[in-house]
Design a protein that fits this description.
Strand order of the largest sheet: 1-2
Largest sheet: 2 strands, antiparallel
Number of strands: 2
Shape: elongated
Distance between the termini: 69 Å
Order of helices and strands: HHHHHHHEEH
Number of helices: 8
Strand content: under 5%
Length: 226
């Protein structure tokens, strides 16, 4: 029994010596090692087209002249806005004469890409929310007659109401679909915008950080059985 005690002591001292020798290497390794940044790959993926390509809003804002953005409103109203549409969300008709196109496409973007004053209509030109679509007459047509070719029982759908924020002072939800209308700046900024929906903070750019599509207008109620 007495012979085993020195062996145990030597083993313990050897283990302690190894720990003492290894301690500096462990400390140096812990200090020199850079912590891994969590979520790097996920952040890079989101930055490519965040918030339904919300980065395009910033680029569009930079392309519009400051004179247009800060110009005085010409008094467009919601009544006038919807009078040029058969239903809410439909392409508006062209309220001015259209010259016969001798080229494959019209030069509509000359006025509707950046806005500007038009002497013919005595007002600022509204911007298009989809300047990448150049076949304008595919959806927008000039009015050729006020009389229907044939009678119908067509009834337009009511336009969405404004506001509808769930809390006082909260950002109102987006009451319309975003297809081809995702460039908020085109309709809500500048003197060509409708007075009732013209915003006073266009420089914030990322509109959908606060305003979200109203996809579920009904109030949610929890089932009492669960």
């Amino acid at each position: 029994m007495n012979n085993s005690d020195p062996k145990i002591g030597k083993i313990f001292l050897g283990f302690a010596a190894i720990c003492v020798l290894a301690l500096p290497f462990i400390v140096i390794s812990a200090i020199s090692k850079e912590p891994k940044k969590p979520g790097t790959v996920l952040e890079d993926t989101q930055a490519a087209g965040f918030d339904q390509n919300g980065d395009d809003l910033y680029l569009t804002y930079d392309r519009i002249s400051q004179v247009y953005l800060e110009g005085t409103s010409t008094g467009r109203t919601l009544e006038e806005y919807y009078s040029r549409r058969e239903y809410a969300g439909s392409p508006p008709f062209i309220p001015h004469p259209v010259e016969e196109a001798e080229k494959p496409r019209l030069d509509c973007l000359t006025c509707h890409a950046k806005g500007g004053w038009t002497e013919e209509l005595k007002r600022n030109t509204p911007l298009t929310p989809h300047p990448d679509q150049t076949a304008c007459l595919q959806c927008h047509v000039p009015v050729t007659t006020e009389i229907l070719f044939i009678g119908s029982n067509w009834a337009s759908s009511p336009p969405p109401s404004l506001g509808r924020a769930h809390l006082p002072g909260a950002p109102p939800p987006i009451p319309h679909d975003l297809q081809m209308r995702g460039d908020c700046i085109a309709c809500h900024v500048g003197p060509g915008a409708v007075n009732a929906i013209r915003v006073e903070h266009p420089m914030r750019g990322n509109c959908r950080q606060c305003h979200v599509p109203d996809g579920n207008p009904a109030t949610f109620h929890r089932n009492s059985e669960y």
